[in-house]
Amino acid sequence: MASNMRGLTQFIADIRGARVRDLEEKRINKEMANIRKRFKDGNLDGYQKKKYVAKIIFTYILGYKVDVGHMEAVNLISSSKYSEKQIGYLAVTLLMHENSDFLRLVVNSIRKDLHAHGEVDNCLALHAIANVGGAEMAEALADDVHRLLISPTSENFVKKKAALTLLRLYRKHPDVIPTKEWALRIVSIMDDDDLGVVVSVTSLVMAMAQDNLDAFAVSYTKAVDRLRRLIIEHEYAATYAYYKVPSPWLLVKLLRLLQYYPPSEDPAIRSVLHQVLTTIMNNSAEPSRNVQHNNAQHAVLFEAIGLAIHLDTASPLVGTAAVLLARFISSKETNVRYLGLDTMAHLAARVDSLDPIKKHQATIIQSLRDKDISVRRRALDLLYSMCDVDNSEVIVGELLRYLRVADYALREEMVLKIAILTEKYASSYKWYVDTILQLIAAAGDHVGDEVWYRVVQIVTNTDDLQEYAAKVVFAHLQAATVHESMVKVGGYILGEYGHLIANEPGYSPAEQFQVLHTKSQYCVAATRSLLLSTYIKWVNVFPEIKPQLVTIFERYRHVLDSELQQRACEFYVLSQRSEDDELLQNVCEEMPPYPPRVSALLGRLNKKQGDTEDKRTWVHGGKEANIDQDAVKRKKTLDLGGSGTANGAAKDENGDILGSLAGLDLSTPTLPHVASPEAPIVATGVNVERWFDKLTYSADGVLFEDVQVQIGIKSRYQGHLGQVAVYVGNKTPTSLTSFTVVVQNPDPSALTVTFTKIPQTTIASRAQTQQLLHVECKKMFSTPPVLAISFIAGSHQSVAIRVPIVVTKFMENVSLGQADFFERWKLIGGPPREAQAVFPVVMTASGQLDLELYKKVVGGQHLNILPDIDPNPHNIVAAAVLHTSEEGKVGCLLRMEPNKDAKLCRVTVRSTSEEVAAQVLKLVMKPMKAS
Questions:
Q1: CA 832 to chain centre
Q2: CATH class of the domain defined by 808-930
Q3: Binding residues
Q4: I need a surface site. Which of 355, 401, 804, 858 has the fewest CB within 10 A?
Q5: Looking at domain 686-805, does it have CATH number 3.40.1620.10?
């Protein structure tokens, strides 16, 4: 093509002939100026547009920014000449991103080419859709791509491209594709005679079936039939034989697809599968001298072994597979060793008996020192999966020895797995404590808080272990260098149980204090805070070292860290109390046993094992970890918060302390930030509560503020409807990206809260964005919605705040005379339709009742303050009507009686709805009590 455009050929030659970059840029700038001038003048024919757009594309490929030629590229797509259309599509796919405004101009042209009878036009359009793949393009053209795929008149190469284009759209925008409606029609193409079409469609079916197993269930039979035709009947064209292996890419995909479904109960299908798998394993028994043949055969063999394990771990095929895998893990080829270890880990995670794998335990342990880190990682996975009660001490001991020389990329995962195995297969509590403390001593910074939390749980809940644990941790603390995690463990255990060993030689209170305090000098503030708690407990049980401990409290009273200072001040005051004071004894009581919760160790390990496009059909961790895998496959989504039995947490609580504690998670979230907007932890704190309380009786103000963002509110209400404007300001010097706002409504049947537009995804530095909420009160509600905001500012940040949308916002003022008010007051009567509370009065600086604050709060809650109703001028009387769209109007009367002499204020609220009365009383009282 370049030879037909001499101007383009010369331009490329000039660029390549430039000796330095400055000359290259000068030539490009000159050409871009000429192109802009020609485009501005207009009157260009198709050839000239094609030539200039080709020059722009070449410039873009070189890495230069181009801002011209987009519209000309759009025009070229509509050309009837192939050469011009090709350049136009090439420019569109390279120069335009999926959200480009120019793409809207080419949708109709692409649709026209999809409907054209020329296969070349169809393929150009499919290429553009697959490469750009925006949401708008997917919504507009997915049906047309599907039509090309299923059309009987489409050529095979068009069907292949259509299937892969649809796969691309599904991966990017799965909600756009009506998967269940198209399932049967797409699966039927797996019977196509052309294996190229079958390969492409099988890729599409694999992606869709993972999320819609039932809709694509018929693909199971199709896959088995195609395997039979390929492996047993050799029904394939010679062009699809890769070094005598029939279409290995298709075989691997079909074998993987079958693992997504539970084994079929159909005897005919099981028989065919047995024949297929037997043939594959027999064909792979003897390796060939041809490397390409071996690679293709191994790819099919390892996937076949995975399917055999999935179908029946007790079948003779699995025994044959174990023999083959033993040979592979000793292979001289790195790839073969890797695949052998990975597949053997699958076998260990599913098989009932680990005896065939344990025969090769020495070889597997030796693989930990393989020259390739990928092989070492798979060896670690396999040891983790094959560990049981019999070999746990050997495997854990070997992992501990290897941990000292392991790659830094492996250490964190190794620490988690060693801790889980030690807890799961502990033969004795003493072995557990010894091993975990050795782990903490050896791994250093790679030990997370979850690991030493577990030691604390076990020791606290096991009386017989406490004295031994205190001695062991004391010995570790005497080392020359001690990691901070060990100091934390030592501070907790010696603080709680140091008195159990204090009378033995070498463990006196002074020696315990000396060994622990010398290690605190290099610890962070959080660790020193923990040690201060240890010292106050020693004050209670070791009076002989009380002067040294009091000296430390005195010293820390003047540090800058607020947490340390507060603890030191409080503990200093406690330590000055008399020895017979019960307060110190009550404060320093031993920790009670911990209740079981979801395992933090397993949760953290699972986060490290992310999904790829083809989800793994098994998990590491032995047979117990895979018990529920078949049931999980048939769920559309997996509830990650409910799986706490994989590590033995379901054992009897009284019978096995390790099992009963397996679910305990001592980690505490740092407020106000939260990990997920789906289950937000609402921000708390003095300022947050004060801001929220003020906005319950104010129309605008600050809702939340920290060093990164400021969130403000402006609102207006009329009847049962309201509008709330949320202003989010970026206080940082950098942009907030991936900005997301979600409203969590606890009671959507009573209150609806909706956004008026999609939130923007970026907030510039020192800028502000606004989100408008529409609110409707359907019926009485008590819990306000939560605003969950997340963004990236260096790291991912989340904050969840209660929005001051309360029931009083939907109230409307009512004017009543004295007679009418008291008549309705008596008519409503007392409890349960009356709510009453007494709280201390609020005084001004001059010592008078702060009636202005009372009126501001009551009036701000949309209650109409009625003057001259109550004989006492200090009393406040108010009335309002709550508007709801489903339950109509609900009246509400309020009477506030402050008494300066008694320094108390009584508030009484009466309403035809007892829920309204209670909620109004709560909303009126809270800000005044805070004041």
A1: 46
A2: alpha beta
A3: 6-7, 47, 51-55
A4: 355
A5: no
